[in-house]
Design the sequence.
């Protein structure tokens, strides 16, 4: 592996460790089975952005992956994810090595003080190949940050499909 690739994984590991140390993952401590994910954005965006990146970097064990993704989602968002997206994303994304996301500086839309649509850049790595996409997320404010409610548009996900 190249130096750049190894450096990327080091940075991602430190980001995940920092997120866990900050307590944003609400009790999901067994990260050894989860593929690396990098989140760049405001600190209060960590729950939602971690859920997004986890969707595109399934680790070992489907149930562990679902728990990890849902840790950064609203209750309704997690239920929707489990019912409509988990099986499809697990099958389509399970070969990914890692993923990362960068949140845009401003919300794409503000619905109210506690509900926004965010635009983010998603990067997925599989077998040394990098794929970049814009994604749109419906997020809701929780007590300790913003939580993912729905992925409105992303690779393998669009509202027209559901």
Sequence:
């Amino acid at each position: 592996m190249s130096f750049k690739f190894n450096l990327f994984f080091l940075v991602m590991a430190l980001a995940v460790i920092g997120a866990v140390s900050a307590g944003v993952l609400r009790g999901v401590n067994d990260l050894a089975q989860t593929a690396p994910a990098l989140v760049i954005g405001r600190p209060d965006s960590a729950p939602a952005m971690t859920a997004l990146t986890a969707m595109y970097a399934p680790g070992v064990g489907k149930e562990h992956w679902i728990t990890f993704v849902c840790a950064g989602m609203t209750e309704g968002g997690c239920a929707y994810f489990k019912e409509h997206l988990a099986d499809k994303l697990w099958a389509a994304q399970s070969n990914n090595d890692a993923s990362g996301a960068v949140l845009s500086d401003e919300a794409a839309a503000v619905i109210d003080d506690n509900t926004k649509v965010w635009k983010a850049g998603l990067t997925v790595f599989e077998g040394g190949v990098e794929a970049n996409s814009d994604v749109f997320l419906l997020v809701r404010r929780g007590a300790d940050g913003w939580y993912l409610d729905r992925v409105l548009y992303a690779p393998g996900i669009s509202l027209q499909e559901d």
User: Anything to note?
Assistant: The first strand starts at residue 37 and ends at 40. Helices lie at 3-21, 46-55, 62-70, 75-93.
